[in-house]
């Protein structure tokens, strides 16, 4: 999708996904030449070589919302090693790895280890294979979308292919939240979609009451664009900005929008990740599964802006 946004012609060589419903959805959307199940398998290591390798490896071990086990999480540790191994064997012109900023803030040793491994790769002459750098980018500041989502991007440019320095995205204007979230639904329709006030559980109802009380106590108008996370032990809210869409929150309807009096539709969650709703095939997977996949995805415009700096650095026109 990010390459489509940039107007770059490409062949989708392969993908790897452990969950069956996501493999079905991804294959239908992108038409990969090969699809793999396990990134740690010999089959994946034997996949075709490509020019651009992109991976958003599991973030839960490094996320504040996860268990925080870091590289001690056996699955995550194996995946990181397998990705580095694939890069060493196939030597793509460029690679982009994406994860949560918690990898920098809470697990700096893990990041240092990963960077040391990637920077330590050498070609047959003993020269450094990749120039590797990283940066934390914010979805709203660098990717146009009004979502409070910071992500770590690690970029590697193969030394013998690099023709210019990597240019990281600069800050850009943020799309107003109301431009993306503006559809008014009747109470009946919201109830049918399971996103109305009647769909809230007891804890969410308590949090919603607390949100409205806090807004009024501060002299704020709930008719303005306030977005509230009702799923935690204590409600959190942001004005004109959507909190981070995780898989769990997205599956349960995202966040409460005070000015619309409901949670988010599937299409709204997709738009907040830069995914056009019409690009999602109908009927292949459930809406809950679509929302969960969206919450786990890389915001498309943000990735596009990273690739806008990566591709020219290794000789591709964008």
From TrEMBL:
Gene Ontology, cellular component aspect: nucleus
GO biological process: methylation; negative regulation of gene expression via chromosomal CpG island methylation
Superkingdom: Eukaryota
Catalytic activity field: a 2'-deoxycytidine in DNA + S-adenosyl-L-methionine = a 5-methyl-2'-deoxycytidine in DNA + S-adenosyl-L-homocysteine + H(+)
GO MF term set: DNA (cytosine-5-)-methyltransferase activity; DNA binding
Keywords: Methyltransferase, S-adenosyl-L-methionine, Transferase
Family: Belongs to the class I-like SAM-binding methyltransferase superfamily. C5-methyltransferase family.
PANTHER family: CYTOSINE-SPECIFIC METHYLTRANSFERASE (PTHR10629), DNA (CYTOSINE-5)-METHYLTRANSFERASE 1 (PTHR10629:SF52)
Protein name: Cytosine-specific methyltransferase
Species for this entry: Cladocopium goreaui
């Amino acid at each position: 999708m990010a390459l489509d946004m940039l107007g770059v012609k490409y062949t989708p060589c392969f993908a790897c996904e452990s969950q069956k419903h996501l493999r079905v959805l991804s294959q239908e959307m992108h038409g990969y030449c090969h699809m793999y199940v396990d990134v740690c398998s010999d089959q994946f290591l034997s996949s075709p070589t490509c020019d651009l390798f992109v991976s958003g490896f599991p973030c839960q071990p490094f996320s504040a919302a996860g268990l925080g086990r870091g590289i001690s999480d056996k699955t995550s540790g194996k995946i990181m090693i397998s990705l580095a191994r694939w890069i060493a064997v196939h030597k793509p012109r460029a690679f982009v790895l994406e994860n949560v900023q918690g990898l920098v803030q809470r697990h700096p040793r893990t990041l240092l280890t990963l960077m040391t491994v990637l920077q330590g790769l050498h070609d047959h002459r003993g020269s450094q294979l990749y120039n590797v750098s990283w940066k934390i980018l914010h979805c709203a500041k660098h990717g146009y979308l009004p979502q409070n989502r910071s992500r770590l991007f690690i970029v590697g440019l193969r030394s013998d292919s690099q023709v210019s320095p990597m240019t990281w995205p600069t800050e850009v204007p943020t799309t107003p939240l109301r431009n993306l979230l503006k559809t008014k639904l009747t109470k009946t329709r919201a109830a049918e979609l399971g996103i109305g006030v009647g769909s809230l559980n007891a804890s969410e109802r308590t949090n919603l009451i607390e949100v409205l009380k806090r807004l009024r106590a501060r002299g704020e108008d709930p008719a303005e664009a306030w977005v509230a996370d009702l799923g935690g032990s204590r409600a959190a809210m942001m004005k004109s900005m959507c909190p981070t869409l995780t898989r769990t929150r997205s599956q349960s309807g995202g966040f409460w929008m005070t000015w619309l009096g409901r949670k988010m539709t599937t299409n709204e969650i997709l738009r907040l990740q830069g995914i056009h709703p019409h690009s999602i095939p109908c009927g292949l997977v459930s809406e809950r599964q679509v929302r969960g996949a969206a919450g786990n995805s890389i915001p498309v415009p943000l990735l596009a802006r990273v690739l806008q700096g990566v591709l020219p650095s290794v000789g591709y026109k964008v």
